[in-house]
Amino acid sequence: MTTLPPLIDEERLRRYLAEQLPGEDAPLVVERIRGGHSNETFFVSREEQAWVLRRPPRGPLLPTAHDVLREYRVLQALNGTRVPTPRVLLACEDTDVIGAPFYIMERVYGFVMRQELPAFASDVAGRRAVSKALIDALVELHSADWHTIGLENFGKPEGYLERQLRRWTGQLEKSRQRPLPDLDAVTVWLREHMPVSGLATIVHGDYRLDNVMFASDAPRVVAIFDWEMSTLGDPLADVGYLLSSWREPDDPEPEFPSAVWHAMELPGFLSRAEMVAYYAERTGRPVYDMAFYEALAIWKLAVLLEGSYARHRAGTTDDPFFAQLGTGVPALARRALGVCNGTRI
What we know:
By secondary structure, the chain is an alpha+beta fold. The chain has 2 domains: 10-106, Phosphorylase Kinase, domain 1, CATH 3.30.200.20; 137-208 and 228-262 and 284-341, Aminoglycoside phosphotransferase (APH), C-terminal lobe (Aminoglycoside 3'-phosphotransferase, Chain: A, domain 2, Alpha-Beta Complex), CATH 3.90.1200. The chain has 10 helices and 9 strands. The chain has a 5-stranded antiparallel sheet, with helices on one face. Strand 1 (29-33) and strand 2 form a beta hairpin. Helix 4 (160-175) packs parallel to helix 9. The two termini are 38 Å apart. The mean pLDDT is 92.
Protein backbone atom coordinates (compact mmCIF):
# COMPACT_ATOMS: atom_id res chain seq x y z
CA MET A 1 0.00 0.00 0.00
CA THR A 2 1.33 3.45 -0.97
CA THR A 3 2.27 5.72 1.93
CA LEU A 4 0.81 9.16 1.31
CA PRO A 5 2.82 12.26 2.25
CA PRO A 6 1.65 14.28 5.28
CA LEU A 7 -0.90 16.99 4.60
CA ILE A 8 0.88 19.45 6.90
CA ASP A 9 4.55 20.03 7.63
CA GLU A 10 4.06 21.01 11.27
CA GLU A 11 7.52 22.46 11.83
CA ARG A 12 7.35 24.73 8.79
CA LEU A 13 3.83 25.77 9.79
CA ARG A 14 5.05 26.60 13.31
CA ARG A 15 7.80 28.85 11.97
CA TYR A 16 5.42 30.56 9.54
CA LEU A 17 2.76 31.24 12.18
CA ALA A 18 5.40 32.52 14.59
CA GLU A 19 6.14 35.25 12.04
CA GLN A 20 2.56 35.94 10.95
CA LEU A 21 0.33 35.68 14.02
CA PRO A 22 0.97 37.48 17.33
CA GLY A 23 1.80 35.29 20.29
CA GLU A 24 4.68 33.32 21.73
CA ASP A 25 6.47 30.92 19.39
CA ALA A 26 5.51 27.55 20.84
CA PRO A 27 4.91 24.01 19.57
CA LEU A 28 1.69 23.49 17.66
CA VAL A 29 -0.97 20.88 18.31
CA VAL A 30 -2.49 19.90 14.97
CA GLU A 31 -5.59 17.70 14.72
CA ARG A 32 -7.08 16.56 11.42
CA ILE A 33 -10.87 16.82 11.38
CA ARG A 34 -12.73 14.03 9.63
CA GLY A 35 -16.30 14.50 8.51
CA GLY A 36 -16.07 16.62 5.38
CA HIS A 37 -14.90 15.00 2.14
CA SER A 38 -13.52 17.90 0.14
CA ASN A 39 -11.06 20.51 1.42
CA GLU A 40 -9.08 19.32 4.42
CA THR A 41 -9.73 20.88 7.83
CA PHE A 42 -7.42 20.95 10.86
CA PHE A 43 -7.67 22.32 14.38
CA VAL A 44 -4.42 24.11 15.18
CA SER A 45 -3.56 25.36 18.65
CA ARG A 46 -0.59 27.20 20.11
CA GLU A 47 -0.81 27.34 23.89
CA GLU A 48 -4.09 29.25 24.54
CA GLN A 49 -4.65 30.23 20.90
CA ALA A 50 -6.98 28.09 18.78
CA TRP A 51 -7.47 28.27 15.03
CA VAL A 52 -8.78 26.29 12.08
CA LEU A 53 -6.68 25.63 8.97
CA ARG A 54 -8.15 24.78 5.57
CA ARG A 55 -6.14 23.39 2.65
CA PRO A 56 -7.00 21.45 -0.53
CA PRO A 57 -6.90 17.64 -0.56
CA ARG A 58 -4.16 15.75 -2.33
CA GLY A 59 -4.46 15.71 -6.11
CA PRO A 60 -5.18 15.07 -8.85
CA LEU A 61 -7.79 17.83 -8.60
CA LEU A 62 -10.36 19.03 -11.11
CA PRO A 63 -9.72 22.50 -12.56
CA THR A 64 -11.04 25.33 -10.31
CA ALA A 65 -12.01 22.82 -7.59
CA HIS A 66 -10.87 23.07 -3.95
CA ASP A 67 -9.86 26.74 -4.16
CA VAL A 68 -9.25 27.58 -0.50
CA LEU A 69 -8.09 31.11 -1.30
CA ARG A 70 -11.50 31.76 -2.81
CA GLU A 71 -13.03 30.62 0.47
CA TYR A 72 -10.78 33.06 2.30
CA ARG A 73 -11.82 35.95 0.07
CA VAL A 74 -15.56 35.51 0.54
CA LEU A 75 -15.20 34.98 4.29
CA GLN A 76 -13.05 38.10 4.61
CA ALA A 77 -15.71 40.11 2.78
CA LEU A 78 -18.56 38.68 4.85
CA ASN A 79 -16.79 39.15 8.20
CA GLY A 80 -18.06 42.74 8.26
CA THR A 81 -21.71 41.81 7.65
CA ARG A 82 -24.54 40.17 9.61
CA VAL A 83 -23.82 36.81 7.95
CA PRO A 84 -22.57 34.37 10.63
CA THR A 85 -19.02 33.51 9.59
CA PRO A 86 -15.78 32.66 11.38
CA ARG A 87 -13.23 35.49 11.32
CA VAL A 88 -10.36 34.80 8.92
CA LEU A 89 -6.83 35.71 10.02
CA LEU A 90 -4.49 35.03 7.12
CA ALA A 91 -4.11 33.32 3.76
CA CYS A 92 -0.94 31.76 2.39
CA GLU A 93 -0.32 31.10 -1.31
CA ASP A 94 3.23 29.83 -0.72
CA THR A 95 3.10 26.07 -1.24
CA ASP A 96 6.55 25.69 0.35
CA VAL A 97 5.04 26.14 3.83
CA ILE A 98 2.80 23.06 4.08
CA GLY A 99 2.73 21.83 0.48
CA ALA A 100 -0.43 23.63 -0.64
CA PRO A 101 -2.18 27.00 -0.29
CA PHE A 102 -4.10 27.41 2.97
CA TYR A 103 -5.83 29.88 5.21
CA ILE A 104 -6.31 30.26 8.93
CA MET A 105 -9.51 31.34 10.67
CA GLU A 106 -10.60 31.67 14.25
CA ARG A 107 -12.05 28.59 15.89
CA VAL A 108 -15.74 28.99 16.66
CA TYR A 109 -17.39 26.91 19.37
CA GLY A 110 -20.89 25.53 19.19
CA PHE A 111 -22.81 22.51 17.91
CA VAL A 112 -22.61 21.01 14.41
CA MET A 113 -25.41 18.52 13.78
CA ARG A 114 -23.67 15.51 12.26
CA GLN A 115 -24.27 12.57 14.59
CA GLU A 116 -26.93 13.78 17.02
CA LEU A 117 -29.25 16.64 17.85
CA PRO A 118 -28.52 19.15 20.61
CA ALA A 119 -30.63 19.46 23.75
CA PHE A 120 -32.48 22.49 22.39
CA ALA A 121 -33.79 20.32 19.52
CA SER A 122 -35.18 17.61 21.79
CA ASP A 123 -38.81 18.60 21.25
CA VAL A 124 -41.11 19.65 18.41
CA ALA A 125 -40.75 23.38 19.11
CA GLY A 126 -36.98 23.15 19.22
CA ARG A 127 -36.74 21.26 15.93
CA ARG A 128 -39.05 23.76 14.27
CA ALA A 129 -36.81 26.56 15.54
CA VAL A 130 -33.73 24.80 14.12
CA SER A 131 -35.41 24.58 10.70
CA LYS A 132 -36.26 28.27 10.72
CA ALA A 133 -32.84 29.31 12.01
CA LEU A 134 -31.23 27.50 9.08
CA ILE A 135 -33.39 29.50 6.65
CA ASP A 136 -32.83 32.73 8.61
CA ALA A 137 -29.05 32.42 8.19
CA LEU A 138 -29.46 31.74 4.47
CA VAL A 139 -31.66 34.83 4.17
CA GLU A 140 -28.90 36.91 5.81
CA LEU A 141 -26.43 35.61 3.25
CA HIS A 142 -28.71 36.34 0.31
CA SER A 143 -29.36 39.82 1.72
CA ALA A 144 -25.66 40.76 1.88
CA ASP A 145 -24.86 43.51 -0.62
CA TRP A 146 -22.00 42.05 -2.64
CA HIS A 147 -21.58 45.36 -4.46
CA THR A 148 -20.37 47.14 -1.32
CA ILE A 149 -18.19 44.52 0.38
CA GLY A 150 -15.59 43.98 -2.32
CA LEU A 151 -17.12 41.06 -4.22
CA GLU A 152 -18.06 42.84 -7.44
CA ASN A 153 -15.77 40.54 -9.45
CA PHE A 154 -16.24 37.42 -7.33
CA GLY A 155 -18.36 35.91 -10.08
CA LYS A 156 -20.52 36.87 -13.03
CA PRO A 157 -24.02 37.55 -11.69
CA GLU A 158 -25.69 36.91 -15.05
CA GLY A 159 -25.83 33.53 -16.72
CA TYR A 160 -25.18 31.56 -13.52
CA LEU A 161 -27.30 28.52 -14.40
CA GLU A 162 -25.88 28.23 -17.91
CA ARG A 163 -22.34 28.40 -16.53
CA GLN A 164 -23.10 25.82 -13.86
CA LEU A 165 -24.30 23.32 -16.44
CA ARG A 166 -21.35 24.01 -18.72
CA ARG A 167 -18.77 23.86 -15.93
CA TRP A 168 -20.06 20.73 -14.21
CA THR A 169 -20.63 18.87 -17.47
CA GLY A 170 -16.97 19.56 -18.25
CA GLN A 171 -15.96 18.38 -14.78
CA LEU A 172 -17.87 15.16 -15.29
CA GLU A 173 -16.08 14.40 -18.53
CA LYS A 174 -12.69 14.98 -16.89
CA SER A 175 -13.41 12.68 -13.95
CA ARG A 176 -15.82 10.08 -15.38
CA GLN A 177 -14.78 6.55 -14.37
CA ARG A 178 -17.59 4.53 -16.02
CA PRO A 179 -20.87 4.91 -17.94
CA LEU A 180 -23.41 6.92 -15.93
CA PRO A 181 -26.57 6.91 -18.08
CA ASP A 182 -28.89 8.30 -15.39
CA LEU A 183 -26.54 11.21 -14.74
CA ASP A 184 -26.35 11.91 -18.47
CA ALA A 185 -30.17 11.88 -18.64
CA VAL A 186 -30.29 14.46 -15.84
CA THR A 187 -27.86 16.64 -17.77
CA VAL A 188 -30.21 16.64 -20.75
CA TRP A 189 -33.25 17.37 -18.56
CA LEU A 190 -31.54 20.29 -16.85
CA ARG A 191 -30.63 21.85 -20.20
CA GLU A 192 -34.23 21.52 -21.38
CA HIS A 193 -35.85 22.90 -18.21
CA MET A 194 -33.58 25.77 -17.23
CA PRO A 195 -35.55 28.63 -15.60
CA VAL A 196 -34.83 32.33 -15.82
CA SER A 197 -32.93 33.48 -12.73
CA GLY A 198 -33.94 36.40 -10.54
CA LEU A 199 -31.59 39.01 -9.09
CA ALA A 200 -28.15 37.65 -8.22
CA THR A 201 -26.89 37.24 -4.66
CA ILE A 202 -23.92 35.62 -3.02
CA VAL A 203 -24.47 31.87 -3.38
CA HIS A 204 -22.89 29.52 -0.84
CA GLY A 205 -23.06 26.46 -3.09
CA ASP A 206 -23.04 23.78 -0.35
CA TYR A 207 -25.64 24.98 2.14
CA ARG A 208 -26.99 22.23 4.39
CA LEU A 209 -27.61 21.39 8.03
CA ASP A 210 -24.16 19.96 8.79
CA ASN A 211 -22.31 22.87 7.16
CA VAL A 212 -23.47 25.32 9.83
CA MET A 213 -22.71 25.61 13.52
CA PHE A 214 -25.41 26.44 16.04
CA ALA A 215 -24.90 28.06 19.40
CA SER A 216 -24.36 25.47 22.11
CA ASP A 217 -27.55 26.35 23.94
CA ALA A 218 -29.96 27.87 21.42
CA PRO A 219 -31.31 27.35 17.87
CA ARG A 220 -29.19 30.17 16.45
CA VAL A 221 -26.62 29.79 13.66
CA VAL A 222 -23.24 31.18 14.75
CA ALA A 223 -21.14 30.16 11.73
CA ILE A 224 -21.54 28.93 8.16
CA PHE A 225 -18.66 26.75 6.91
CA ASP A 226 -17.31 25.24 3.66
CA TRP A 227 -17.41 28.13 1.19
CA GLU A 228 -15.36 26.57 -1.59
CA MET A 229 -18.23 26.59 -4.11
CA SER A 230 -19.43 30.10 -3.31
CA THR A 231 -19.94 32.62 -6.09
CA LEU A 232 -22.44 35.21 -7.34
CA GLY A 233 -25.55 33.78 -8.89
CA ASP A 234 -29.08 32.50 -8.43
CA PRO A 235 -30.08 32.32 -4.74
CA LEU A 236 -32.58 29.54 -5.43
CA ALA A 237 -29.62 27.27 -6.12
CA ASP A 238 -28.86 27.40 -2.38
CA VAL A 239 -32.48 26.65 -1.52
CA GLY A 240 -32.43 23.69 -3.92
CA TYR A 241 -29.18 22.43 -2.40
CA LEU A 242 -30.68 22.59 1.07
CA LEU A 243 -33.77 20.70 -0.12
CA SER A 244 -31.58 18.01 -1.71
CA SER A 245 -30.20 17.05 1.71
CA TRP A 246 -33.41 17.64 3.70
CA ARG A 247 -35.24 14.52 4.89
CA GLU A 248 -38.93 13.81 5.35
CA PRO A 249 -40.46 10.79 7.17
CA ASP A 250 -41.47 8.86 4.04
CA ASP A 251 -38.22 9.34 2.14
CA PRO A 252 -36.29 6.20 1.10
CA GLU A 253 -32.96 5.34 2.67
CA PRO A 254 -30.33 7.95 1.69
CA GLU A 255 -27.33 7.05 -0.45
CA PHE A 256 -24.97 7.78 2.45
CA PRO A 257 -26.92 7.22 5.69
CA SER A 258 -26.10 9.25 8.78
CA ALA A 259 -27.70 9.69 12.16
CA VAL A 260 -28.59 13.34 11.61
CA TRP A 261 -30.27 12.59 8.28
CA HIS A 262 -32.66 10.24 10.03
CA ALA A 263 -33.09 12.72 12.89
CA MET A 264 -34.56 15.18 10.37
CA GLU A 265 -37.50 12.81 10.01
CA LEU A 266 -38.59 13.55 13.60
CA PRO A 267 -41.73 15.63 14.20
CA GLY A 268 -41.10 19.36 14.29
CA PHE A 269 -38.63 19.67 11.45
CA LEU A 270 -40.27 21.61 8.63
CA SER A 271 -41.10 19.75 5.43
CA ARG A 272 -39.32 20.72 2.21
CA ALA A 273 -42.43 22.63 1.10
CA GLU A 274 -42.55 24.48 4.43
CA MET A 275 -38.86 25.38 4.15
CA VAL A 276 -39.47 26.87 0.71
CA ALA A 277 -42.54 28.76 1.94
CA TYR A 278 -40.63 30.20 4.92
CA TYR A 279 -37.77 31.31 2.66
CA ALA A 280 -40.26 33.03 0.33
CA GLU A 281 -41.94 34.70 3.32
CA ARG A 282 -38.64 35.96 4.73
CA THR A 283 -37.22 37.25 1.44
CA GLY A 284 -40.29 38.30 -0.52
CA ARG A 285 -38.67 36.68 -3.56
CA PRO A 286 -40.67 34.59 -6.01
CA VAL A 287 -39.78 30.92 -5.55
CA TYR A 288 -40.40 28.62 -8.50
CA ASP A 289 -39.14 25.58 -10.44
CA MET A 290 -37.73 24.01 -7.28
CA ALA A 291 -37.55 20.58 -8.95
CA PHE A 292 -34.93 22.06 -11.28
CA TYR A 293 -32.86 23.53 -8.45
CA GLU A 294 -33.04 20.38 -6.35
CA ALA A 295 -32.12 18.14 -9.29
CA LEU A 296 -29.27 20.52 -10.15
CA ALA A 297 -27.92 20.19 -6.60
CA ILE A 298 -28.00 16.38 -6.59
CA TRP A 299 -26.46 16.27 -10.08
CA LYS A 300 -23.60 18.58 -9.05
CA LEU A 301 -22.93 16.49 -5.95
CA ALA A 302 -22.80 13.34 -8.07
CA VAL A 303 -20.32 15.00 -10.46
CA LEU A 304 -18.20 16.24 -7.57
CA LEU A 305 -18.13 12.80 -5.96
CA GLU A 306 -17.23 11.14 -9.26
CA GLY A 307 -14.10 13.30 -9.12
CA SER A 308 -13.50 12.06 -5.58
CA TYR A 309 -14.01 8.50 -6.79
CA ALA A 310 -11.33 9.11 -9.41
CA ARG A 311 -8.92 10.18 -6.66
CA HIS A 312 -9.88 7.09 -4.65
CA ARG A 313 -9.15 4.81 -7.59
CA ALA A 314 -5.85 6.62 -8.19
CA GLY A 315 -4.85 5.94 -4.58
CA THR A 316 -4.25 9.60 -3.73
CA THR A 317 -6.75 9.85 -0.87
CA ASP A 318 -7.03 8.04 2.44
CA ASP A 319 -10.67 9.00 3.05
CA PRO A 320 -12.58 5.71 3.61
CA PHE A 321 -15.85 7.38 2.58
CA PHE A 322 -14.75 7.41 -1.06
CA ALA A 323 -14.87 3.62 -1.25
CA GLN A 324 -18.69 3.94 -1.18
CA LEU A 325 -18.79 6.02 -4.35
CA GLY A 326 -18.70 3.06 -6.71
CA THR A 327 -22.38 2.56 -5.92
CA GLY A 328 -23.08 5.94 -4.30
CA VAL A 329 -22.65 8.12 -7.40
CA PRO A 330 -25.04 6.05 -9.58
CA ALA A 331 -27.54 6.09 -6.68
CA LEU A 332 -27.37 9.89 -6.53
CA ALA A 333 -27.93 10.00 -10.29
CA ARG A 334 -31.07 7.86 -9.91
CA ARG A 335 -32.42 10.17 -7.20
CA ALA A 336 -31.74 13.26 -9.32
CA LEU A 337 -33.55 11.67 -12.26
CA GLY A 338 -36.48 10.87 -9.99
CA VAL A 339 -36.72 14.55 -9.00
CA CYS A 340 -36.63 15.50 -12.69
CA ASN A 341 -39.44 13.09 -13.49
CA GLY A 342 -41.52 13.95 -10.44
CA THR A 343 -41.06 10.45 -9.04
CA ARG A 344 -38.71 11.09 -6.14
CA ILE A 345 -36.81 7.90 -5.22
